[in-house]
Amino acid sequence: MTSPKSILKQLNPSNPIGLQSSSWLSRIQSKIYSTPLDDPNAAITLPRQELKRVTFSVSKLTSERIFYSGDDVPEEDSTQTDLKEATLADEDIKLDPSQELPKYYEKACRMREEPVLDRFLDVLRLNCFTRLTAVDLSNKVIDRHQAGPIADILMLQHCLTDLNLSNCALEDETIRVLLNSLLLSDTLPVLDLSSNPFKAKGFKYISIFISQSRALESLSLARCTPDRSSIQHLSQAIQLAPSLRHLDMDECGLKPQLLEVLSEGVRQSTSLSSLSLRNNRITHLGAVWIAAMLLTEEPIDIYWQSAEYTRRGLQRLDLTNNNFQHGLGPVAQALYNNQSLIHLSLKDCHIGPDGCSLLAEALLSNQYLQTLDLSGNPLGKGSDDGIQSLKTTLARNPRLVELNLADTTLGSSAAIALAEALPENSQLTRLDLSKNPLVTMAGVLALSVSIRMNDTLTFLDINIPPNDLDLAQLQNDIVAVCTRNMQRTFENNKPQTAKEDVESPEISCEPKVTCSSSTISSASSASSGLSHSIEEHPDVASFDYSKQHPSLPINYPLEDISLVDDLQL
User: Fold this and answer.
1) What is the mean pLDDT of residues 40-68?
2) What are phi and psi of 373, to 5 degrees?
């Protein structure tokens, strides 16, 4: 019996990555660079036909008339009368383009003999005089029959950029109906399917949509519960996806076995750059597969790619609220030679001084990471060893721009250690030390003195107790230096900004520095601190499509509405 074919080429597993040898890395290599003989799902196909449905154009439908004689002619009921009047009106009167979508939806409901979903109709009416760019049906139950008329509208070519179907109790067949219509138009970039009870077939339909759509850029599957088969389909779809950039799988209960399957798709993806895995209770058992997602030093050839193909790799990874207390070693080691990741969030991951030291040592070699969020971790509990390692990193790392150490049990000794690194650092612009009440006068004084010898820091947040005039004065001194650095940065960017204004007068160019209001908020001692998670970052899942979808008059020919039968080809 021949072994099933793998989508990966057989590579020499002796040292394909070029990293330091270790037990966890050897296990990853043995999994990635070999094909299990007993795995029936080594090659998974995602046929488009499974998502397709038979469609019938309204313009080609005919009416069947029955002839009666004498007194046998039945009276025409009100439904037939309304339908006839609507048909005559459509034929004789040209509809106002601003009111077409609600009328089309109502007619689709009549033809399907389904009740109107008031929530969806209200959305269409509210956007009568503007382009329909966002539809939010979250927390509204949508069954298979109600999905039919909605699918008819989604099939039309319009400027929809955001569709929210979160917590709509969508079943597998319901999502198939909707995704087929979305794929026919293929213009939707942001889709939220979180908190829905999808089964294996539902995840397969979603995977087909991911692999086929050339418009989809952001997808949320948070709070869904995939099994191994579902993750296999998703992993394959991520590899094939031509446009998917951000995937949200928060609170999906991803066990190590599921992370193992998912990691292969993430590593091989040609488009995925942002991944959110919050609240998945990932421990040291799953950390090795998180590390596998970050191994990007040596490109892996996919069978349909040329030899010149190079993977992009993850640029943003959010691991908030997982448990890496004893499992951060593999992740830290993967960072040594990672060349793609620029934003890493390890907020509330139970990381102690030892884990902080591992990360700091990795960042001495990593030359690409720009933002690191370690807030909510006991970094200073019982020892300052981790902060001392971080001090060395800040003095040598040339790329780290933002560091969040809020609520990390730091004391004055840790603050002094960080202050000693500021004069030698020439890249850091944001440092958050808020919610560390153990930092007293000595720590704040050290920061206020050292920041005067730093020319790049434009945001330094630290809380002080109320009614302490001496600490308030020191904090005001820190704010003054941050403002000075901001002005210098603005002046350095001003010639380039002015040139851009001349070339593009319609575009407002802003300096790439922190807003002054953020710095001034430090003096109020009431700022909540910096939180740089993927969800709070506006540039992760929000995209500007105004240039891709210019403003055009809305005019949908009535013939384009299709009645869709749920027959499967």
Assistant:
1) 53
2) -110, 110
Tokens representing 561?
Answer: 């509405």
Give the pLDDT score at 489: 87
- Tally Cβ neighbours within 10 Å of residue 467: 7
C-alpha 268/C-alpha 301 separation (Å) is 9
Sort 91 into a burial class: Cβ within 10 Å, 0-12 / 13-18 / 19+: exposed
* Residues whose CB falls within 8 Å of the CB of residue 348, separated by 6 or more in sequence, listed in order: 320, 321, 375, 376, 377
The CB-based long-range contact list for 237-240 (8 Å cut-off, 24+ gap) reads 237/46, 237/206, 237/207, 237/208, 237/210, 237/211, 237/265, 238/210, 238/262, 238/265, 238/266, 238/268, 238/269, 238/272, 239/7, 239/264, 239/265, 239/268, 239/269, 239/270, 239/302, 240/46, 240/210, 240/211
Average pLDDT on 509-531 reads 36
Please state, in angstroms and rounded to a whole number, the distance separating the CA atoms of residues 455 and 397. 16
Q: What is the pLDDT of residues 469-478, one digit of tens each?
A: 999 999 999 9
Q: How many residues does the chain have?
A: 569
Nearest to 320 by CA among 539, 538, 531, 542: 531
Number of alpha helices (DSSP H) and beta strands (DSSP E) in the chain: 17, 14
Q: How many CB atoms lie within 10 A of CB 191?
A: 24
Helix 23-32 with 284-293: angle, nearest 10 deg:
60
Evaluate whether 208 touches 50 at the Cβ level (below 8 Å).
yes
Give the pLDDT mean for 209-237. Answer: 96
428: pLDDT strictly greater than 60: yes
CA atoms within 13 A on the CB side of 352: 7
Q: Is the pLDDT of residue 347 over 60?
A: yes
How far apart CA 279 and CA 322 sit, in angstroms, is 6
Strand order in the sheet with 402-404: 134-136, 162-164, 190-192, 218-220, 246-248, 274-276, 316-318, 343-345, 371-373, 402-404, 430-432, 459-461
Q: Dihedral of CA 498/500/502/505: which sign?
A: negative
Can you tell me the mean pLDDT for 404-422?
A: 96
Cα distance between residue 364 and residue 241, in whole Å:
34
Query: How does pLDDT run across 258-282, given as a tens digit for each residue?
Result: 999 999 999 999 999 999 999 999 9
The Cα-based distances of 512 to 397, 404, 448, 456, 515 in angstroms read: 20, 19, 24, 12, 9
In three state form, how does the secondary structure of 488-522 look? HHHHHHHHHHHHHHHHCCCCCCCCCCCCHHHHHHH
Residue with tokens 């339908």: 83
Nearest to 539 by CA among 295, 297, 274: 274
Paired strand residues for 274 = 246, 316
Question: Is the four-CA dihedral 311, 270, 39, 291 of positive or negative sign?
Answer: positive
Task: Give the pLDDT confidence score for residue 341 in this predicted structure.
Answer: 96
Q: Could you give the percent of the chain with pLDDT greater than 90?
A: 58
